[in-house]
Amino acid sequence: ISSSYVFVNAVLVVASAVLLIILNIFYTFDYVSWLGIYTNILIAFLYQYFQFSQLFARFDYDFKSISKVQILDLTFKAFITIVLVYLYGVVGFFIALFFGYLIGAIFSKKLLNPKFKLILSKKAIKETIRLGFPLLLIGAVLTLFQSVDRWFILKSLGVAELGYFAIMFTFSSLILLVPIRVLSVVIQYVREYYFKTKDHAVIHFGFIDLLFLFIVLNTILILISKEFVFYLLKYYLIEYQVSYDFVNPMFAVSYFIGAFHILSAYFVIVSKTRYTLISVSVAFIFSIVFNFVAVYFYNTLYAISMATLLSGFVLFGIVLYFFIVEGVGG
Asked: Left (φ > 0), alpha (ψ -120 to 50) or beta: where does 162 sit?
């Protein structure tokens, strides 16, 4: 695990350096955009620490500590995002992102106490490239996919409109974290069962049950969250009330993104991540097309939020198709 962690971070250092050089040479951004770029680069490293720390704990079957970390992480992120967006708008959103992941890493250090060693094993690196590179590539394309709408907003509508969109995106993401993190613990046990039995049919039907469970959990959270967000925007984040106009498509997309993550876990377990990569790559292209149409014909936040919803539907539709086909073939 330590070798994989060091190798992944080394790749991130190189990729970040190349990205910053290209952006500095070919593009001009305002300070808010640069803040967002640097924040996301720093978050990438904090995210790796957070994920690898939990990987150590999963090998020790310390799910109780993992649950504590995830609950604390989710609670703090929700609180700091609401407070800083209220105080500083878009700048506060980026600052909240950074401190949210930073505190998540600190919680991981204190409660999980991962034993990282600065070592590089040639065998581990080869294994990481063989198994981890497809996941790293999927993560990179997925990040691009989820950023398309915000780039179109920034270029066509400006920073202020991005702030309205960002706060609703944040609420939608926070809703999604709860069922996904609950199910991630269940999926860990499913993974162990598959490695021991190789019972493909049981695993396939098990993930169907997980999908239905996710739909139920997500629906309950959305119904509760819509009331909470309405109250929050009406009485506290008054200047962001326009964000509530597109709450339905932004909350609805959480179904598709959440289901995609669950089915992606299935393909990781059965060693067929190529289906996930194909799904997210095709959806990324569709997302560009949908957002271009939304901006060209309507140029409103609601239209872009609908483009985001359609993009999520395409992502889920493709990965569901592969899940069904692979299940029949398996």
From this structure: alpha
Which spans in the chain are helix H? 2-26, 31-59, 63-112, 122-127, 133-156, 159-197, 200-235, 247-269, 274-297, 301-329
Cβ within 8 Å of residue 98, ≥6 positions away:
39, 42, 43, 46
Structure tokens at 168: 């609703």
> Are 259 and 313 in contact, with CB atoms under 8 Å apart?
no
Residues 74 and 178 sit within 8 Å (Cβ to Cβ)? yes
Of the candidates 74, 281, 66, the residue with the CA atom closest to the CA atom of residue 173: 74
In this predicted structure, the answer to whether residue 122 has a pLDDT above a threshold of 80 is: no
Q: Tens of pLDDT along 134-185?
A: 666 777 788 788 888 988 887 888 777 877 887 788 788 778 877 777 777 7
- pTM to 2 decimals? 0.77
CB atoms within 10 A of CB 119: 10
Where do we find the tokens 């190789």?
Answer: 198
Q: What is the CA radius of gyration of the chain?
A: 20
Spatial separation of the C-alpha atoms in residues 319 and 324, rounded to whole Å: 9
Nearest residue to 329 via CA among 194, 190, 201: 201
Residue 276 to residue 319: CA distance in whole angstroms: 6
